Amino acid sequence: MDVSQPQVYFTALAVGLLGGVHCLTMCGGLVATLTLGLHPEIRRDPRRMLPYQLVYNLARISGYAVAGALFGALGSMLTEFESLKLTQRLLQGLAAVIMVLLGLYLAGWSSALAALERLGAPLWRRLEPIARPFLPVQRLVQAAVIGFIWAWLPCGLVYSLLIMAMSSADPRAGALIMLTFGLGTLPNLLGLAFLAGAVARLTEHSWIRRLAGLLVIGFGLAMIV
């Protein structure tokens, strides 16, 4: 994958921004839990709650970037075992197929990608209990720990972008791909926390979902060609 091409990062941003329907499904309950998990005095004042919500999400996005760097490094290691050109093409081909499946998933035309989410369930079962002692949240450091753990919640969108990060065969590019994706998710999840989902519900319109899906499918097909 030519990570110098802006469409790589545009796709990552679009997946994060327009994947709001999936965010509502996967993260809605967690966002509600984290909001209710704040100390009541903090929760009642939106101005005091804002720093905590930002820390939750920035720590989550940092977790994505760490995972992207790890997968980029994994892709780089894989290219050492076989012909560099052949391995990169295989990784790019895999990323392209996943992009097409992700586009179908975002548009609501296929649920095949949901199988990816089940792969991360064992890891999440080990990580989720680690966050429990940090509730209710009264300090920003607690919010940071919980936010970083949140990044490892099983999610088809995240796993799809991690495969793209792996195909970059570069830890820095992998981290940047995941960072861009994470920033795209920020408006939906902040809106979900503060406005009871009013911002996130904008992405429930079928034409927005289909437009997002078609954009991602188009990028995947271009990669295949």
UniProtKB/TrEMBL annotation:
Give UniProt keywords alphabetically: Membrane, Transmembrane, Transmembrane helix
- InterPro entries attached here? UreH-like_TM_dom (IPR039447)
Q: What is this protein called?
A: Sulfite exporter TauE/SafE family protein
Q: Which domain of life is it from?
A: Bacteria
Please provide an example of a Pfam family that matches this protein in its UniProt record.
DsbD_2
Residues in domain Urease accessory protein UreH-like transmembrane? 11-221
Q: Where are the transmembrane segments?
A: 12-38, 58-78, 90-116, 140-163, 175-200, 207-224
